[in-house]
Design a protein that fits this description.
Layout: E1 3-5, E2 8-10, E3 15-19, E4 24-28, E5 36-40, E6 46-51, E7 54-59, E8 64-65, E9 70-74, H1 75-83, E10 88-93, E11 98-103, H2 104-110, E12 112-114, E13 121-125, E14 130-131
Length: about 150
């Protein structure tokens, strides 16, 4: 049901129109769905996606590096993700259901360059990731240590 108040017309569907003497403005009051950008290899295969400020990638047991023990990502994919606004990298390990999270910048500052037949990659050792099931900060109040009783 349209509503008109002082030159502002509300269409009732979340879209508003404002008419002045010479200009007409349309804007939406509904929140846009968050954009998801697919990250692709050079051969156009999707290898991950950027949602918000995070680049997400699914990995399996076979994707872990053995020596050094770590997780690698394609350099071009990391750059694509950064250009799309990603700050963080999250690898979701399907078998263990764990997430390995690190800032993308850490790949470029501490990453080990590897090329094992899949193009240029940067790898981080597992210790460089915050795992989802481990707190990143110790508890502020660890009451069991206080011996109050």
């Amino acid at each position: 049901m349209p509503l008109s108040v002082g030159g502002l017309t509300t269409a009732g569907n979340g879209t508003d129109t404002h008419t002045s003497a010479r200009l007409e403005f349309q804007y939406t009051t509904r929140r846009a769905k968050s954009q998801i950008l697919k990250i692709r290899r050079a051969d156009n295969v999707v290898i991950g996606e950027v949602r918000g400020d995070t680049y997400f990638k699914k990995i399996h047991d076979k994707h872990f590096l053995d020596k050094p023990r770590g997780i690698a990502s394609d350099v071009d994919a990391l750059r694509q993700a950064q250009n799309a606004g990603a700050i963080y990298f999250v690898a979701y390990h399907v078998e263990s259901k764990r997430e390995y999270r690190a800032p993308i910048a850490r790949f470029f500052s501490r990453g080990i360059r590897v090329n094992r037949g899949y193009g240029e990659q940067l790898a981080l050792v597992i210790a460089d990731f915050n795992k989802n099931d481990e707190p990143t900060q110790p508890a502020l109040f660890n009451l069991s240590r206080l011996n109050l009783f």
